Amino acid sequence: MDRREALKATTLFLGYSLTAGATSALLGGCKAETSSDWQPKTLDNQEVELLAEICETILPKTDTPGAKDALCHRYIDEMLTNFYAKDKQDYFKDALKVFDDRSKSKYSKAFIALNTSEREEVLSILAKEANEYKDETGDRPHIFRAIKGATISGYFSSEVGAKGGLCEFLPVPGPYQGCIDYATVGKSYVL
Predict the structure, then answer these.
(1) What is the domain count for the chain?
(2) Nearest 5°: CA angle at 57, between 113 and 63?
(3) Does the residue 3 lie in any domain?
(4) ∠ at Cα 52 (56, 121), nearest 5°?
(5) Sequential DSSP letters for 39-75
(6) Beta-carbon neighbour count of residue 19 at 10 Å?
(7) How far is residue 145's CA from residue 129's CA, in Å, rounded to a whole number?
(8) Cα 36 to chain center, whole Å?
(9) Average pLDDT along the chain, 191 residues, taken 10 residues at a time
(10) CB neighbours (10 Å) of residue 12?
């Protein structure tokens, strides 16, 4: 794949996965607070706990850090606080309940009480719903699409995601070398 095709694929990916709020947060420099005494500003503690499990199911920890390691749930709370109007915050909080609703209807348990495969099944159901969901105004995206986009932007804009994700993080670039064999480098690099 040449550079032009890679940029086109990346643009399509970001365009389809990020909602307006997630895009605003990403472009606005939103980042998760890392302090040990962090308290949510918009969501309550139970909603943050549920959100953390949803994010981790979307981007689980493997040989690379997961969404919890990148504090995506904190990023989303920060995004809601600083980039969403009160009515959209309320919509998000209300729509978050759909995860427990689908979990209880399928497994008779809350989402956080499910095992990994059950959580993935619930997310599959919601992903299908999101694909069929029609929002004429664009103001109220399906909650799964909103959380998935925010999780992705939160993960890859975090230091944990940049260092442990798909790319190698170089805060200060070295000299320009235009043609390097991929086998000698081993990873793609992000500045």
Answers:
(1) 1
(2) 120
(3) no
(4) 50
(5) --SSS-HHHHHHHHHHHHHHS--SSS--TTTTTHHHH
(6) 19
(7) 10
(8) 21
(9) 50 48 52 81 95 96 91 93 91 95 96 97 94 75 91 87 68 68 68 53
(10) 10
Going by C-alpha positions, the residue among 109, 148, 118, 139 that lies closest to residue 18 is: 148
Nearest to 74 by CA among 48, 97, 56: 48
Q: Is residue 111 part of a domain?
A: yes
Spatial contact of 130 and 145, defined as CB atoms under 8 Å apart: yes
Exposure string of 22-57, with b = 16+ CB inside 10 Å and e = fewer, is bbebbeeebbbeeeeeeebebbeeebbebbbbbbbb
Measured CA to CA, the distance from residue 154 to residue 25 in angstroms comes to: 9
CA 131, distance to chain mean position in Å, is 17
Q: Is residue 55 part of a domain?
A: yes
Q: Which residues of 112-129 are buried (b: 16+ CB within 10 A; e: fewer)?
A: eebeeebbebbbebbeee
Structural domain harbouring 29:
16-166
- Is the overall model pTM greater than 0.85, yes or no? no
Q: Is 167 helix (H, G, I), strand (E, B) or coil?
A: strand
